[in-house]
Design a protein that fits this description.
Two copies of one chain form a homodimer. Chain A is mainly beta and 669 residues long. Chain A folds into three domains: 10-93, Roll (Nuclear Transport Factor 2, Chain: A), CATH 3.10.450.40; 104-234, Nuclear Transport Factor 2, Chain: A, CATH 3.10.450.40; 266-305 and 316-368 and 390-427 and 452-541 and 562-572 and 598-639, Copper amine oxidase, catalytic domain (Beta-galactosidase, Chain A, domain 5, Distorted Sandwich), CATH 2.70.98. In chain A, 11% of the residues lie in helices and 39% in strands. In chain A, the strands form five sheets. In chain A, strands 10, 11, 12, 13, 14, 15, 24, 27, 30 and 31 form a ten-stranded antiparallel β-sheet that branches. A ten-stranded antiparallel β-sheet of chain A has the order 16-17-18-19-20-32-29-28-25-26, with helices on one face. In chain A, strands 1-2-3-4 form a four-stranded antiparallel β-sheet, with helices on one face. The interface between A and B is large, with 201 and 199 residues.
């Protein structure tokens, strides 16, 4: 019997595919995803509580949810299948202007014939690429984006590159050889509809107007480019002076995990979930028998690029909605992606043709030493008490075309949760004429422009601080009047206001603004404040696109740091349900806020938007050292003392460190 | 022969003390510090370059610099002693209103007789503490602070506490038993001059006016208080399910270090310095034979408290200037404060009586695995290239009374430098009447108020990006006009302006503002930008105290995020040279900026102020889980590609991780 929060297992997925194929018998389907429809909170909540009380009740029904194209009919649908009764319970058409996400199979499939297409061949020829030379060409299938509030066909655009023509090595860095045109493909009509040529004159375009007429120069499109490789086989002269560093856990890990991905570690108890859209999800997170969070996930990421010259102004990816966090998850390998004693979790996906695919190790979990958790030295006696911080790391790594994202949830022994995001991979590049510069990006190699862009993430926090009814309070530090009660003007206090109605608001550095999620029904007996968790937010720049732009309209979630909404089943996606080619955020946080629900002492969701505004460094090329972002959830008035006070002290007997004395320096300069 | 950047060694310190004592023969001295006066850049710079070129020149003179009180004369002086010629070269009086820092010996000494003092005994009696009960009393000697722009005597104030009266255990947490009065001691007059009583009515004081007349209640000052212990011997029921986690480096560390603390690791080469004021300093930092930073240090920290009710409005510590980062450095112990293969560095200090004291292991250095440094998976072939990030950690831990600060410089293989600050220890507490609350802090135990406060740090960055002449540029992301060159309004660019004249400015989240240090004389051949490093700043709340307050005047450095000044020898201290009881920042960054020097293509210093505004959580009590702050320095246009491209890939053969499969869950709820 699967747990209600278990992913659909391969047998269930196969059964769902069977029902779907049977329903559309004889039709060619392109299945995008089939996954568990998470049970409504009204059913799942009581089930989880009964389970923990040791008095299990009947589980909610297992529902498979899927969406797909009926290729012949050029239609898209969603389907719901009850796996307990084997009944299709609902089918809904996904009508224009909405589109289903793109997928990698689609891009790969189109690439198999695109270099035979006359339009593409013609463009390649204009770049001086013909015959054998075509064999080095590669392309990244991209979401077409949206720049008009009109209904358009289901398109995909291709950013064109070449492997190093000198080697044609399959792992050659194609982003060092960008080609200046973008074939546009109509998926449902199954044809290339046009070639868009790119402006390549850099700042000259800006000074003199965009000039697409100097196309003869493209005949030498790859001339003067240089390989810039990252793949280890292609990088000579590696460092030889790095010594091994091994993590040993002679008694094994401190966690336990069962068949339903129930993890217990250092008073934490939670379930590891996985789905094609969000990837890694944490469910039903308890600490020391108390509820903290119902569900934690990364909901969306928008990646708009800053070069406004058509057609590359279209580059704006919603990596979760347009492609899928789970769909893009790497299979992690032992000794490479994590260090120490590691538990891997698999993910079950459905391929477009209905095959069930188990991706091995899409999530890894391991413990890490994270330095000192707390210390105090009594200066009178020099007696020191020091406790190290052990963290439990749940990591998943996404490859979305050129980019990689490493998402890791960290749990610690002081009841802190942290989401760490590392951005790495290869910056998206485009062609620029040799010797020119562009204010829209950084020239990182001959003829290669890495464009400025943003990554705005939304993390979705569905709290359950000691129960379902929670509130959000906003805290600002303000000075108090300089009067007889504040004779030297030094007074400052922390103010608090509650969010009563669903709404959005922003960070404020100057006032040290922070946000708490609290349960007003339960008061901390010592502080007198409601029990809660504090959000340690990432106060970063928000979406640059100004009001009135389609870019802003489609990513409303990226325009404010904080959003408080009333919980609604299946309202998981900050940027809307169908982001691919969307002109507007539909079903996202902006609409949720617009309901003007009461969110005080209600079942609420807090969404936090933050990100990177990335003006690429040349040091980010050909592959980018991680850029790290962190947000945290810290208990605040939840306990009656430091919850890590009972962690055993750090001792040499336990830690077995080694002291080194002077080592001879070789005095190389 | 010591290196010019070596600390004064014990022999040198002893010699300096000898000269000093001889100079003031027969006088009782209270020596605050004696340490190396770092050679002027005009001498040291050429020396370091000649050394690296393998053509050493004569070293600059070894100068001992000290400051001390002549107790009988009630005077303070600074002294300079040339250790090569054994000559005193300069003596300068430190005149009022300036005072030398306080020190722990002073506080400890006063505590030996304060419980015999009639003033203190009288106050204790008013609190119901007499006879045997006095034996549990403890006090923290505090900097007196300053609240008037007038010259005052050299004072120290004492925050009064008690060990747990039930146990009188020496490691009992005294901050659970605050007493509501503050004895004030005149150091040079050697007497207690008054008792200041504290307001304890919480918000009632604010509503009704501060009421010091209900003093009869103090007779039961410790009644109802409860012990709240952190010391491991006093904490029962520790966790038993944490398994050992060992770091093994079978081939030893990847670094080398010589007798002069010259460290070489992964293309980095630098010297580890230590002095009583700043503690850990990094000198002459090169990467792959290129200069990056001349000197990196934490310069100052101001800790103002927000409770304006006298006398506790005085609580404002400058932990570096009032006490000393090196003076407060813990002796670190193997297996407790770091994990792995560790090199320890000692620090040499002079005690007030002139004894030379070697503090063992005030700095530790070790390598750490820090997750993934870069990764890319070619989605076409699923070939992954992944490199782990090894960091070199230089850590020092300060105990300043109740608080601990963990400062760690992290260097990585992508030429990144990061300063990580962890705040831990015990929040400063004060008495509050049972059952009352205060908007100035958090009640963390019966009768215990943990007051809101700030920690504003200043990190001092003396750059040498490919040479001494550097500039600072400020970068803001702005949208471009929505016109024919930006037809869909999506354009944004990174703007740059240089700082021409020494000045201060602030972070700006909305525009993604960042700061670079560049060398305009050397242009990156690919990007066309000057070589540089980017400061990844911590954009946090600044000093709350408003204009016009003495608190703001004494900590001008804490009122702006960024300060650019022209380098001046010995201008090391953001908050001024003599911060103890200062009414104004003298010799700090504000004065340096006021010189209105040219700072474009000059020998410059960049100072970054940032911090924590801490409204204590009850979870921070009785000891605080670390709160972490980070600032970074990242190469930006310094290289022509990712400098970590040559780091060998992460392999299981090298890393030796272990996979765990399902473990049985014990299903404890």
């Amino acid at each position: 019997m699967p747990h209600p929060l278990d992913q659909l297992n391969p047998e269930e997925l196969q059964r769902a595919v069977g029902h779907l194929k049977n329903y559309h018998k004889g039709k060619q389907l392109h299945i995008k995803n089939i996954h568990l429809e998470e049970p409504p909170k009204s059913l799942l909540g009581p089930y989880l509580q009964a389970e923990k009380a040791g008095k299990p009740i009947a589980p909610p029904p297992r529902i498979a949810y899927g969406y797909y194209y009926i290729m012949d009919d050029k239609k898209a649908e969603e389907i719901w299948i009850d796996l307990d009764t084997n009944q299709i319970t609902k089918v809904v058409m996904v009508a224009l202007p909405q589109h289903l996400p793109m997928d990698q199979d689609e891009a790969n499939h189109i690439e198999t014939f695109m270099y035979d297409d006359p339009l593409v061949l013609g463009a390649l020829k204009e770049c001086g690429i013909e015959g054998e030379a075509i064999k080095t060409v590669a392309s990244d299938g991209w979401m077409y984006g949206c720049d008009e509030i009109t209904s358009v066909s289901r398109h995909m655009m291709f950013l064109m590159y070449s492997r190093d023509p000198k080697t044609n090595h399959p792992e050659s860095n194609i982003y060092a050889f960008p080609l200046p045109f973008v074939p546009v493909y109509d998926i449902l009509e199954k044809k290339f509809v046009r070639i868009d040529w790119c402006a390549t004159s850099g700042d000259d375009d800006d000074a003199n107007g965009i000039n697409y007429t100097t196309r003869q120069k493209y005949k030498f499109a790859l001339e003067g480019h240089q390989a810039s490789e990252y793949y280890p086989d292609l990088v000579p002269n590696k460092r030889t002076d790095l010594k091994p560093y091994n993590v040993l856990q002679p008694e094994g890990p401190s966690f336990t995990v069962d068949e339903s991905n129930l993890v217990q570690w250092q008073k934490w108890r939670f379930r590891v979930g996985f789905n094609p859209r969000e990837g890694l999800v944490l469910h039903d997170v308890d600490y020391d028998g108390r509820r903290t969070f119902y569900r934690l996930s990364v909901s969306e990421m928008a990646v708009p690029y800053g070069d406004p010259r058509p057609p590359l102004h279209r580059k704006m990816a919603f990596d979760f909605g347009d492609v899928g966090g789970g769909k893009c998850a790497n299979e992690l390998s032992l000794g490479c992606d994590c260090l120490g004693t590691i538990k891997y979790f698999d993910g079950h996906l459905v391929e477009p043709n209905g095959n069930v695919l188990t991706r091995k190790g899409v999530i890894c979990m391991h413990e890490q030493d994270d330095g000192i958790l707390w210390k105090h030295t009594n200066y009178r006696t020099e007696a020191a008490a020091v406790v190290r911080r052990r963290i439990l790391v749940l990591q998943t790594i996404l490859t979305v075309g050129n980019y990689e994202y490493i998402f890791a949830w960290h749990l610690d022994q002081a009841a802190n949760i942290q989401l760490e995001i590392r951005a790495t991979g290869i910056v998206s590049t485009q062609a620029i004429d040799h010797g020119k510069r562009s204010r829209y990006g950084t020239v990182v190699g001959p003829g290669v422009l890495a464009t400025s862009h943003q990554h705005i993430f939304s993390v979705r926090i569905d709290p359950a601080i000691d129960g379902n009814k929670n509130s959000v309070s906003v805290h600002d530090t303000v000075i108090t009047p300089w009067d007889e009660r504040n004779p030297k003007g030094t007074g400052f206090i922390n103010t608090k206001r509650y969010i009563d109605e669903s709404s959005a608001f922003d960070a404020n550095i100057a006032s040290n603004r922070y946000v708490k999620i609290v349960n007003e029904n339960k008061i901390n007996p010592i502080t007198g404040n409601p029990v809660g968790f504090k959000l340690a937010a990432a106060p970063t720049a928000l979406l640059m696109a100004p009001p009135g732009t389609v870019a802003r309209s489609r990513a409303a979630f990226a325009t404010h740091h904080f959003w408080v909404t009333k919980h609604k089943d299946n309202e998981f996606y900050a940027g809307g349900v169908w982001t691919n080619q969307s002109a507007k955020e539909v079903g996202g946080v902006q609409e949720a806020v617009n309901r003007r629900d009461n969110v005080r002492n209600e079942d609420i969701v807090l969404w936090h938007s933050f990100g990177l505004t990335h003006h690429p460094r040349i040091e980010d090329y050909p592959v980018m050292p991680v850029e790290v972002l962190k947000v945290g959830l810290h208990p605040n008035d939840f306990f009656t003392e430091n919850p890590a006070i009972d962690v055993p002290p750090s001792t040499q007997q336990f830690n077995r460190s080694v002291e080194v004395f002077q080592t001879r320096s070789c005095h190389r300069m």
